[in-house]
């Protein structure tokens, strides 16, 4: 049998993948924050707010969090076209897709096997993103395209049609292990159940006994309490056979209305139904909020400083997503944190969270917002709906600088900002070791197995020092040693593997590259089309 070729989305520059440096994360304890006391026994403190480029941050999280994130929500910058006005038509899609491709690839690795990713996007890039995600996550792992009503009034100045919706694309890591939770019934939905006949089983509502699907055994006559006979409506059939009907009738699950003259209906008891409803793919602003609602909440929190966010997402929208995709204490990740809505909602709902943001609003908006949540001072959003009273905390991290930098002669050397502990932690990450320095044994700075260790030093090691190391390690263990230089033959120490730093890692990564962000000023300039150069004149050429 001939296999069908794999369909992929192609674009200019797709093959140019960055060689990301796995940076270490440094905690800033002055910006970390936690409540002054425990509010409940379920308070969560080990949440993370990371300041820095989100692609580098995702790479930094890879070693510790691969396969551990239950739900990812991202609200990436929409490619509106205006941001790419200096590029040829079509090229802007290539740039945007390249930036997203690298991030999605890392995000997929971080997901648990039963995890999912939810992405809000508008019409400009939705369908490109859908095909891109088919490639990254696999088309079979597509779950749904949800339409979210972001606005509830029409823009009368729209050129063609007023756009009142965004998309929420949902993909599972593994569709076979992914499950969607139910939505709890609202009070309005519960009130549709009543108990007019004082049935001891409690409140019920009447459901149609007929169905449109053909069922040959569902074509019998039903005799009502008054002797009247009922048949299924034309083109429909009873949803049961006669034996099942008689069982329901004997169990008093059939109603003919209060008068006894109505068509037969099936009583569905609230107490016997699942505790929740299956969500659909049309989310109204009444259920999940709107951009305007989110703007009003931010305005109440930050005043005029909230204007930096043009299309903020409401807390109701994130609550719906986390209700469907997570359970309490699951880990939630947002690598485009924006105003910090994901972390605020996850915190109030008892989910652990990680947020990444490069903009200065990480300091001016996200930190103050999450502090208000922790202190119980945030009265907006979903606070009242979930009964939030404060508690918990978060740790603030920033990305370490690049491990290597160039000296005045243009040679790559270890960055002077790195102390010995930082250097050991960074090299552990590069070599795939878990950083876990021993308090008792100086050369045990990390491990890959119970018997395989790593030792990183800034000293040049002599033959005697290497021999002493080899003797201490012994025959039952192995040690990777990284140092600037050493004397002696490496094969003389069978339990040691000796490498020079930085020489051994020079070709591993793009050193000194600090910003892979989606800021337009960081993107490469578009090439000038052939023939246009002559029109620009000699001054433009130079």
From TrEMBL:
Pfam families: N6_N4_Mtase
Enzyme class at the top of the EC tree: transferase
An example Gene Ontology molecular-function term: N-methyltransferase activity
Database matches in InterPro entries: DNA_methylase_N4/N6, DNA_methylase_N6_adenine_CS, N4/N6-MTase_EcoPI_Mod-like, SAM-dependent_MTases_sf
Alphabetical keyword list: Methyltransferase, S-adenosyl-L-methionine, Transferase
Family annotation (PROSITE patterns): N6_MTASE
GO biological process assignments: methylation
Domain DNA methylase N-4/N-6: 69-362
Catalytic activity: a 2'-deoxyadenosine in DNA + S-adenosyl-L-methionine = an N(6)-methyl-2'-deoxyadenosine in DNA + S-adenosyl-L-homocysteine + H(+)
EC annotation from Swiss-Prot or TrEMBL: 2.1.1.72
Record-stated family: Belongs to the N(4)/N(6)-methyltransferase family.
Name of the molecule in the record: site-specific DNA-methyltransferase (adenine-specific)
């Amino acid at each position: 049998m001939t296999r069908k070729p794999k369909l992929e989305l192609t674009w200019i520059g797709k093959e140019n993948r960055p060689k990301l440096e796995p940076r270490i994360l440094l905690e800033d304890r002055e910006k970390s924050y936690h409540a002054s006391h425990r509010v409940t026994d379920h308070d969560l403190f080990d949440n993370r707010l990371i300041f820095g480029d989100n692609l580098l941050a995702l790479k930094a999280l890879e070693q510790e969090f691969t396969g551990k994130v239950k739900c990812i929500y991202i609200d990436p910058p929409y490619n509106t076209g205006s941001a790419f006005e200096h590029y040829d038509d079509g090229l802007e899609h290539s740039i945007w897709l390249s930036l997203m491709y690298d991030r999605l690839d890392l995000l997929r690795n971080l997901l648990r096997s039963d995890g999912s990713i939810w992405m809000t996007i508008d019409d400009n890039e939705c369908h490109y993103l859908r095909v891109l995600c088919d490639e990254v996550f696999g088309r079979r792992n597509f779950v749904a395209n949800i339409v979210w009503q972001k606005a509830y009034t029409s823009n009368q100045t729209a050129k063609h049609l007023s756009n009142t919706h965004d998309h929420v694309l949902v993909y599972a890591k593994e569709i076979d292990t992914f499950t969607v939770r139910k939505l709890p019934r609202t009070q309005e939905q519960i009130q549709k159940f009543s108990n007019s006949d004082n049935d001891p089983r409690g409140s019920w509502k009447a459901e149609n006994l007929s169905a449109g699907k053909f069922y040959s055994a569902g074509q019998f006559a039903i005799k009502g309490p008054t002797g009247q006979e009922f048949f299924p409506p034309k083109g429909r059939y009873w949803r049961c056979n006669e034996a099942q009907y008689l069982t329901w009738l004997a169990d008093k699950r059939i109603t003919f209305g209060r008068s006894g003259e109505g068509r037969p209906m099936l009583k569905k008891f609230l107490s016997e139904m699942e505790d929740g409803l299956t969500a659909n793919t049309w989310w109204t602003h009444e259920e999940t909020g709107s951009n305007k609602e989110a703007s009003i909440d931010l305005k109440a929190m930050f005043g005029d400083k909230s204007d930096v966010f043009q299309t903020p997402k409401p807390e109701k929208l994130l609550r719906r997503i986390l209700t469907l995709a997570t359970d309490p204490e699951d880990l939630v990740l947002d690598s485009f944190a924006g105003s910090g809505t994901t972390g605020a909602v996850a915190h109030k709902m008892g989910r652990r969270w990680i947020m990444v943001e490069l903009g200065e609003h990480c300091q001016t908006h996200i930190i103050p917002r999450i502090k208000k949540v922790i202190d119980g001072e945030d009265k907006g959003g979903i606070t009242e709906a979930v009964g939030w009273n404060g508690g918990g905390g978060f740790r603030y991290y920033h990305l370490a600088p690049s491990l290597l930098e160039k000296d005045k002669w243009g040679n790559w050397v270890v960055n002077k900002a790195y102390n010995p502990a930082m250097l050991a932690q960074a090299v552990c990450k590069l070599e795939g070791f878990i950083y876990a320095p021993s308090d008792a044994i100086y050369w045990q700075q990390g491990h890959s197995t119970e018997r395989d260790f790593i030792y990183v030093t800034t000293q040049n090691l002599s033959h005697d020092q290497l021999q002493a190391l080899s003797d201490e390690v012994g025959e039952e263990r192995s040690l990777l040693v990284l140092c600037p230089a050493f004397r002696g033959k490496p094969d003389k120490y069978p339990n040691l593997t000796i490498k020079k730093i930085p020489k051994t890692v020079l070709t591993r990564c793009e050193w000194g590259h600090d910003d892979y962000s989606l800021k337009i000023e960081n993107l490469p300039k578009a090439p000038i089309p052939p023939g246009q150069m002559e029109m620009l004149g000699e001054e433009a050429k130079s």
